[in-house]
Amino acid sequence: MSSSILDAIDRIVAGNRVYAQQTSEQDPNAFKEWNKGQSPEVLWIGCADSRVPETTVCNCKPGEIFVHRNIANCVPADDISSASVVEYAVTHLKVKKVVVCGHTKCGGANAALADADLGQTLNTWLHPVRELRRKHKTELDKLPDDDARSLRVAELNVQQSLEVLRLHPAVKRAINERGLSLHGMIYDIGAGQLRLLEASGVKKTNGLWSPN
């Protein structure tokens, strides 16, 4: 095993010890409480990008957000992994909000701008995002550069994921029976800020979703 891998693992283990000690000093009962169970109010579906750790960027504690992350925060209708997370969070944990969060500088969105061969698995996974690019080609071609196009693809992908979620049986039932709400967001890596794209009942403006 290379020294760089060992160094990375050593940093992780050492960091965990610091975290455990500092957390216990700040709240001696924290781990005891978390050990009792979880009751998060939010299901967060985000990208696996290492720069977008949801608990950190939302300044939340363990137990506050139930999380599912994958490449480009996709929610394919036929993906049993995301579907099972959604069903567990909505039916059993009874979360009150579901968030789909994309982000700027997304590698998946960037890859979707072209048709380069990424390997069989990634080609299959990103196919729906590439289809979004093809569907919205006229709009995307009018944007000034690839950064703007990538951001727009990320926004469209969040909206598409929300549409898939609305068709999930558990989500439909929870919306009707207890007011579950769905929300789309974009995280700006360069600014460290979240931007709301869509929430239940808001209006669509200039092709984007806005609470205003």
Q: Which residue ranges are poorly predicted, with pLDDT under 50 across at least 5 consecutive positions?
A: 199-212
- Level-2 CATH architecture of the largest domain: 3-Layer(aba) Sandwich
For the termini, the CA-CA separation is 53 Å
Total number of strands: 7
CATH topology of the largest domain: Beta-carbonic Anhydrase, Chain A
- What is the strand content? 15-25%
The major sheet is characterized as: 5 strands, mixed
Q: From the helix content, strand content and strand pairing, which structural class follows?
A: alpha/beta
Q: Which strands sit side by side, in order, in the main sheet?
A: 2-1-3-4-5
Assign an overall shape: globular
Cα gyration radius (Å): 19 Å
The H/E string reads HHEHEHEHHHHHEEEE
